[in-house]
Specification:
single chain; two-stranded parallel sheet; 20% helix
Length: 97
C-alpha cells in the first residue's frame, strides 16, 4: 500500500538524523516479515530498495527510510481466524509430511 503525506499533518520528518539529511522527497518503506534473515541479507535489501527507488522515481538514496518488523509463525493469519503457519497441534499449511 502506498500512502502520501503532506509534510504538515502527518508524521513526515525533515532534518538530519544520524548525519543523513531528509527533505520533501523522503520515502518510507515498511516491511513486515517472518523472522530469520541475517543482517547481511537485510543490508543488501536496504541497498536494493534505495537503488530501485532512485532509479524509478529519482528520489535520492539518502531520502529512502526502510523499516523491517519481524515476527513469528503464530503472528500470521491468512483467514478463517486461524494461524495457518502455526496451527494448534498440527503441521503448518503447506508443510511436507
Amino acid at each position: 500500500m502506498l500512502t502520501g503525506h503532506d509534510g504538515v499533518t502527518s508524521t513526515l520528518r525533515h532534518g538530519n538524523h544520524l548525519g543523513i539529511p531528509k527533505d520533501d522527497s523522503v520515502v518510507f518503506v515498511a516491511i513486515t516479515l517472518r523472522a530469520g534473515r541475517d543482517d547481511d541479507l537485510k543490508r543488501a535489501l536496504y541497498r536494493r530498495i534505495a537503488g530501485l527507488v532512485h532509479e524509478r522515481t529519482g528520489t535520492e538514496p539518502h531520502n529512502v527510510l526502510v523499516t523491517l518488523t519481524e515476527n513469528g509463525s503464530a503472528d500470521w493469519s491468512f483467514g478463517h481466524g486461524e494461524a495457518q503457519y502455526a496451527p494448534a497441534g498440527g503441521q503448518p499449511a503447506g508443510a511436507l509430511p
